[in-house]
Write a structure and sequence with these properties.
alpha+beta; seven-stranded mixed β-barrel; two-stranded antiparallel sheet
Length: about 300
Amino acid sequence: MAPRANWKGFLRLSLVTCPVALYPATSESEKISFNQMNRATGHRIKYLKVDADTGEEVANEDIVKGYKVDTDTFIAVTKEELENVALESTRTIEIDEFIDRSEIDPRYLIRPYYLRPDGKVGHDAFAVIRETIREMNKVAIGRVVLTNREHIIALEPLDKGLMGTLLRYPYEVRDPAEYFDEIQDVKVTKDMLDLARHIVDQKSGNFEPDKFEDQYETALVDLINQKRAGKPIVPKERPRGENVVDLMEALRRSVGGAKSTEAASAPKKPAKKVKKASAGQKEMLMPIAGKKQAKETAAKKPTARQRKSA
């Protein structure tokens, strides 16, 4: 079952319009999360919304947004006032222009969404817009309002639907000169580049997300399971970084290390693909002691008929 839509409205290209729904393309719900607790009692910490001056709790209906003018002065802005400021894109994604995908600076990318027709009508209009973008090999740029704020959204075909990626505004992207100006101008020799290229060639591969493992998440699962089992937690020794004295020597050693690693791993059979932990996260955290062992014992135990014949 698909998650709840973040936004519903219309997708419009000139006079072609269709109802659509916007869904988050990513999720972090499978990741382990923690609650804050009172160390002494083991109880969860509860947060209350209180008046900063009186200390009294404030009901949700009495809370409004405020813009800080100075230390003690705020301008209150109501929900109704914010809705009045909202633009036309509140209910419609209007495609303004088409650009090449390569023109979008990666720094402007925020997060991806899935866009699909909403309901049983409008599938033909949606298909026309989708296939036009696909045929032209372009990205459609439009505007959408999420959480009372207008965003730029880039639309491109993905399977039978569209992927919409929110984009940042120019004022949200920091000037790299503030960070890179102090980097020294270093001349890299051809020998160093040749060795570095050799390392890159040895480590080149294809982007396969399934082979990446969230090692921190795996370590968290192991930590929680050990604590649930009452086992002592022994801190692991952290690797120590080495100071690079001779860069050329470090490059040579890296090339030699990569070669020895390849030679050592060549005769071995390919490792079995590790099953993702996210789908069975809850099962990993709640193992049933002896369940597997009981099944094996039951399988080995002779049936009544076998005992009789024996």
